[in-house]
Design a protein that fits this description.
mainly alpha; elongated
Length: 239
């Protein structure tokens, strides 16, 4: 919710009173749940608000947003002279893309089914069942994991048997550049659970979950239990 990111009642009211108030409120909640730092989440919300405002001026409803509209908005940003937003940094288009993806995932935007080389629904459905059966995980937890897993599947395609610790670590590092380390820690946790599922299903190498954790610790990246190379070094010095 917007109240998780903003203290100003006027700012929260301004966002909620706009043409996509409910959608921005839910987007704020998702950003918080995934683990974005407050300053990063606010920047993504600002970009989403700009996208919605631009679309509204062009007669495009939130439910009518499309990839084409997003591309047009991307061309608008370098030359933006909007009174409320000024000249916008093109890098903020990432926030608009995240918002557009959220609208699709939430069903606000109806997207025609297209053939995909990645069997996301079937694989994620099996993962959800495994998480519920083996871990007793609730739906909201798996939904948060699924955000990172979908991104991984888009990155690696069907070659799940070729996953290795180095590639997974690099995937986390790339995500941390835009999401921050808090989100990177949640991404690491989601990937380790997904890897354990793949191991159980015979779809990747046994022991990959352990080697992935060790690779993260070796590079000082956040592991699911917060253990890093820096922590390891401090423990060694104290012993």
């Amino acid at each position: 919710m917007l109240s998780e990111l903003f203290e100003s009642a006027a700012r929260i009211h301004g966002l909620r009173a706009g043409p996509a108030g409910a959608e921005l409120d839910e987007f704020a909640h998702v950003l918080s749940e995934v683990g974005y730092a407050q300053i990063t989440a606010r920047r993504h919300l600002r970009a989403a608000e700009h996208f919605v405002s631009w679309a509204h001026r062009h007669g495009i409803a939130v439910s009518g947003l499309s990839e084409q509209a997003l591309d047009r908005f991307g061309r608008h940003m370098p030359r933006c002279r909007c009174a409320q937003y000024g000249h916008s940094d093109r890098s903020l288009l990432h926030g608009a893309r995240l918002f557009f993806r959220h609208l699709k995932d939430s069903g606000t935007i109806k997207v025609a089914a297209v053939a995909s080389p990645i069997p996301e629904p079937a694989l994620l459905m099996t993962f959800r069942e495994w998480m519920h059966r083996q871990r007793g995980a609730c739906a909201s937890t798996v939904d948060n994991y699924a955000i990172h897993i979908r991104e991984l599947l888009r990155h690696v395609g069907l070659e799940l048997d070729k996953l290795d610790a180095r590639g997974l670590r690099q995937f986390v590092m790339e995500g941390s550049k835009t999401c921050g380390w808090a989100a990177a820690k949640k991404r690491t946790t989601a990937l380790r659970m997904f890897v354990r599922f793949l191991i159980a299903e015979g779809k990747c190498a046994v022991g990959l979950d352990v080697s992935f954790r060790q690779a993260c610790v070796a590079r000082g990246q956040p592991s699911p239990d917060g253990y890093t190379a820096a922590v390891a070094g401090s423990a060694a010095s104290a012993s």
